[in-house]
């Protein structure tokens, strides 16, 4: 006796509803009453029914799958954004496929997702305007939303204004009496890094201050550690703005290694307000970005675009 896969017809028969009703339940349609939905879901559970996404893809149907192209998930901020996206997508009945770009090849990363026939794509990669437009063309008619792109790019975006956060950090440090304020920033190819550096420079100029030092990392804790080691023990600023919390962790370790006290001899302020920053020693003062909100909001906007395309 050969076993066969459970079908929608099997679920419909057990639940006492039509095939179309089962399909509506799977697609989270609001046209199904709560009582009917519960009956269908109970039948699915009893039969151990699993939706066949491959069959949906081959039939050219919506797969209720979103794709996320993201930076290295070893970094705290992208990882927390991805987690928020996954949670909100799941809450809306969508599966999330993640492709991580570790070689600065956004097109190849996006092609991985297109091969999965996702319904829409979220792009959390640092892209120039022309790069984003090329990705938009690559995706054809599929809805695409960019989370880290030049604001002037003529593409759909969902991101935080980096300038206001960096400016607020400088204002905070100036209010503490600091006049020599350095910056430990991410790579120049990063849109976010350039925006934060521009705001740092402008905020200093507004107070008739000149940049004390501009150090560079790659967003990792190790790069923050190495950047500070190269600066120590001479020519330290009174305060240091670090463009993400992870590099701040490395910078603080280098300062501790040289016996430089925080905040006694130098103030350090991070950026992103990642969950881990509260566990640094001393706890890190950091510019708050609601990464959970950003991730959830990007899914909300994508769902709105998908519903518009379906309507």
Question: Explain this structure to me?
Answer:
The protein has 12 helices and 9 strands. By secondary structure, it is an alpha/beta fold. It has 3 domains: 8-51, 434 Repressor (Amino-terminal Domain) (Orthogonal Bundle), CATH 1.10.260.40; 65-160 and 292-310, Rossmann fold, CATH 3.40.50.2300; 162-288, Response regulator (Rossmann fold, 3-Layer(aba) Sandwich). Strands 6-5-7-8-9 form a 5-stranded parallel beta sheet, sandwiched between helices. The chain has a 4-stranded parallel beta sheet with strand order 2-1-3-4. The longest helix is centred in the last third of the chain and has 20 residues, at 291-310. The two termini are 45 Å apart. 39% of the residues are buried. It comes from Enterobacter agglomerans.
What is the domain total for the residues?
Answer: 3
Average pLDDT for all residues: 88
Helix and strand content put the structural class at alpha/beta
CATH third-level topology of the largest domain: Rossmann fold
* Morphology: elongated
Q: Class of the largest domain, according to the CATH hierarchy? A: Alpha Beta
Number of helices: 12
Strand elements, count: 9
CATH architecture call of the largest domain: 3-Layer(aba) Sandwich
CATH H-level name of the largest domain... which superfamily? Response regulator
Could you estimate the helical fraction of the residues in percent?
40-55%
% residues in beta strands? 5-15%
Q: Which H/E pattern describes the elements?
A: HHHHEHEHEHEHEHEHEHEEH
Q: Quick one: biggest sheet?
A: 5 strands, parallel
CA gyration radius, whole angstroms: 24 Å
Low-confidence stretches: none
- Main sheet strand line-up: 6-5-7-8-9
First CA to last CA: what distance?
Answer: 45 Å
Pfam families: LacI, Peripla_BP_3
Domain HTH lacI-type: 6-60
GO molecular function: DNA-binding transcription factor activity; transcription cis-regulatory region binding
InterPro entries: HTH_LacI, LacI/GalR-like_sensor, Lambda_DNA-bd_dom_sf, Peripla_BP_I
């Amino acid at each position: 006796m050969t076993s066969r896969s459970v079908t929608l017809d099997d679920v419909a028969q057990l639940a006492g509803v039509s095939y179309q009703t089962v399909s509506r339940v799977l697609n989270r349609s609001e046209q199904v009453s709560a009582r009917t939905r519960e009956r269908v879901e109970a039948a699915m559970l009893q039969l151990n029914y699993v939706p066949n996404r491959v069959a949906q893809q081959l039939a050219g149907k919506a797969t209720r799958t979103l794709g996320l192209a993201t930076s290295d998930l070893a970094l705290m901020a992208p990882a927390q954004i991805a987690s928020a996206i996954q949670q909100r997508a799941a809450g809306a009945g969508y599966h999330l496929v993640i492709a991580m770009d570790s070689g600065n090849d956004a097109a190849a990363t996006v092609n991985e997702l297109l091969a999965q026939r996702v319904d829409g794509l979220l792009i959390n990669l640092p892209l120039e305007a022309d790069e984003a437009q090329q990705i938009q063309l690559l995706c054809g008619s599929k809805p695409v939303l960019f989370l880290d792109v030049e604001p002037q790019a003529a593409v759909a975006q969902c991101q935080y204004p980096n300038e206001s956060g960096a400016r607020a950090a400088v204002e905070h440090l100036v209010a503490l009496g600091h006049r020599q304020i350095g910056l430990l920033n991410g790579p120049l190819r990063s849109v976010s890094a350039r925006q934060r550096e521009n705001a740092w420079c402008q905020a200093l100029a507004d107070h008739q201050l000149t940049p004390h030092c501009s150090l560079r990392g790659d967003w990792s804790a190790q790069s923050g550690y190495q950047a500070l080691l190269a600066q120590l023990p001479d020519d330290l600023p009174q305060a240091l703005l670090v463009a993400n919390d992870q590099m701040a962790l490395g910078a603080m370790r280098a300062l501790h290694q040289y016996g430089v006290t925080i905040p006694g001899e130098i103030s350090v302020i991070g950026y992103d307000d990642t969950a881990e920053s509260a566990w640094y020693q001393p706890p890190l003062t950091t510019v708050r970005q609601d990464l959970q909100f950003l991730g959830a909001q990007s899914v909300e906007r994508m769902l709105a675009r998908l519903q518009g395309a379906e309507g």
